[in-house]
Amino acid sequence: MIRSIVAAIAVVSLASICMAEAAPAPTLAAGQTLHGRFVQVRRLKGFASPLKSDGAFVLAPGRGLIWRIETPIKTTTVITPAGIRQIIDGNEVQHIDAAKAPFVAHFYDMLNGALLGNWEAMRHDFAVKTTGDRNAWRTILTPLRPDDPIAGMIASIVITGGKMVDAIEINRANGDSENMTFLDQTVSSTALTGDDARLLNNNDLSPAD
Predict the structure, then answer these.
(1) What's the CA gap between 16 and 122, in Å, rounded?
(2) What pLDDT is recorded for position 71?
(3) Alpha carbon 5 to chain centroid distance?
(4) 205 and which of 4, 20, 36, 85 could share a cystine (Cβ 3.0–4.6 Å)?
(5) Residue 171, Cα to own-chain centre: how many angstroms?
(6) What count of Cα atoms within 13 Å lies in the side-chain half-sphere of residue 82?
């Protein structure tokens, strides 16, 4: 589960960074949120067929990320400055306190910095090479330290897009890979309400009753 959680953080963090480098109006202002859908295809060693999932996400600077897989198994991953919680079919199955897991705080800092236009934190861990222009670009990221316990899990990440991020390919050091396609992305200035607002409250990361 740690791997899937890290993937969720890395994907949206890196997406935001590429927007900061290549896209017009790239960053989210205070109070804005990014909403969208995704389709994820994972190819794992030992599995003859790829594993496909889809869902939706909500990303808010300074507050965190809600990453909802809707099929095949309903799974919600919530990342805030306080830590990470993972909820499956309404039941919390994992809780990682940021105070006890430094990598959580590190990745959250990258995520929030990218959203606010400060993506230098990512360059501390990855070499970044971008080609193309604002309408069509491609970025390749490779870890600077293969022995890093988190970044070292990744061999390379390839991100493509235009005004928004369209797709991300993650190639892992162990030979696994995954492709994510992003759809229906919108930026909203309307305050979050209901379950989304509650899930991103640092003092209440539990699912709704």
Answers:
(1) 11
(2) 93
(3) 8
(4) 85
(5) 15
(6) 12
Q: Is 172 helix (H, G, I), strand (E, B) or coil?
A: strand
Alpha helices in the chain (DSSP H): 2-22, 102-115, 120-123, 194-199
Q: How confident is the model at residue 21 (pLDDT cuts 50, 70, 90)?
A: low
Do residues 76 and 56 lie in contact, with contact meaning Cβ atoms separated by under 8 Å? no
Is the CATH number 2.50.20.10 carried by domain 2-199? Answer: yes
Q: Tell me the whole-structure pTM to 2 decimals.
A: 0.78
**What is the token pair recorded at 42?**
């994972």
d(CA 207, CA 86) in angstroms, rounded, equals 9
Helices 2-22 and 102-115, axial angle in degrees (round to 10): 20
CB under 8 Å to 137, separation ≥6 — which residues? Answer: 18, 21, 22, 23, 130, 131, 160, 161, 162
Instruction: Please report, to the nearest 10 degrees, the dihedral formed by the alpha carbons of residues 78, 137, 114, 30 taken in order.
Output: -90
CB proximity list for 102: less than 8 A, separation 6 or greater: none
The CA angle 94-59-73, to the nearest 5 degrees, is 45
Question: How many CA atoms lie less than 13 Å away from 142 in the CB half-sphere?
Answer: 2
Q: Alpha-carbon distance 180 to 187, whole Å?
A: 19
- Residue 65 pLDDT level (bands cut at 50, 70, 90): confident
Cα distance between residue 170 and residue 166, in whole Å: 14
For residue 172 the two structure tokens come to: 């892992």
